[in-house]
Amino acid sequence: MLNNKYLFTSESVSEGHPDKVCDRISDMVVDSYLSKDPVSRVACETLTTTNKVVLAGEIRGPKIEKEELILKVRECIKDIGYDQDGFSWKNANIETFLHEQSKDIAMGVDSRDNKDEGAGDQGIMFGYACNETEELMPAPIHYSHKILRLMAEDRKKGILKGIEPDSKSQVTMLYENEKPIRVTSVVISTQHSKDLDQEKVREAIIPYIKKSIPENFLTNLDKKEIYINPTGQFIIGGPDGDTGLTGRKIIVDTYGGAAPHGGGAFSGKDPTKVDRSAAYASRYLAKNIVAAGVSDKCLIQLAYAIGVSKPLSIFIKLANGDETKVEKVKKIIDDNFDLSPRGIRELLKLNNPIYETTSAYGHFGRKPTNKGEFTWEKTNKSDLFKL
């Protein structure tokens, strides 16, 4: 039996969080290779710590000189906003240990001898959509992202002064009958200059909560339940305050815990890796199903084996009361969508350099752009699912 009333919380982290700095750099590497050759293979991991960045991983594609990649790493750090004593785009020590992809992996995933291209690895991927927001995302993660994104935009414009790049947000919502009713607490922890006391930090941040969350959700929110820098101060932050690694924020990247995650990270991987491409495809399917009005919620799981083209299984779960529609939805997917790695890439046009912008504020719930970014957020196939 479902709970009639409950609280649910999701968190986000800003582009200046140490792990997100790494995701940004790793996705920059992916884009750099795809921009030169759209069939490049990339698996790039990044580590950051005090004034140091280390890249490692496997590449198959055109030659890019280390100096060119290092310059692009500095551009990423500069754009995020780091020019601090402990981490600066100007003088951070940057090392790269990228090397050629394993021939054993290449043998399993390349198309040859009339055999279709196989998945780049085994694994399970999930996609989810719900009608809690216009973006068909769970409300807590959507608003957590929005607060930090608006803060970052104004920080870079010079409007939000004294606030540094490293921030976290957390939104707790009360649900009744599976619908979000109101926000019960908000937590924002943000790095700031030493000249800004905590009262000034609070005054600067509160407006972004009000800009990001609809007024009806903030009704009756107790001011005591708005926690701004609850530790007292946050001056030392970013990679100087904590080591960062690629792929450590997979729940932030997806649905904030409202849906399962298969386990694989996205950033740093080219689209032959089904960890990334199949997660995008399953979100695309789930979003179009909900957009069609089939159900208030849709969860899809895809499973793959390395070297095997077609998914081993497709699992579909709809909201309570809509279970009878699952077989019809499954048949529509089988009849209309090629979910092989190649089919997904062609459907969503994933061989383009579109990934750096995905590295912060979520891979889902974003607006498709005229540059080809976030194609998996389109609802152009919803008519297929109208039952």
Inertia-based shape:
flat
End-to-end distance: 27 Å
**So how many helices?**
11
Side by side, the strands of the main sheet go: 1-8-9-10
Q: Which whole number gives the mean pLDDT?
A: 94
Radius of gyration over all CA atoms, rounded? 21 Å
SS strand fraction = 15-25%
Q: Roughly what percent helix?
A: 25-40%
Report the count of strand segments: 13
Spans of at least 5 consecutive residues whose pLDDT stays below 50 are none
SSE pattern, N- to C-terminal? EHEEHEEEHEHEEHHEHEHHEEHH
Query: Structural class of the helix and strand makeup?
Result: alpha+beta
Describe the overall structure.
32% of the residues lie in helices and 24% in strands. It contains eleven helices and 13 strands. The strands form four sheets. Strands 1-8-9-10 form a four-stranded mixed sheet. The chain has a four-stranded mixed sheet with strand order 6-3-2-11. Strands 7-12-13 form a three-stranded antiparallel sheet. A hairpin with an 8-residue loop joins strand 12 and strand 13. The longest helix is centred in the first third of the chain and has 19 residues. The radius of gyration is 21 Å and the shape is flat. The model has no long low-confidence stretch (mean pLDDT 94).
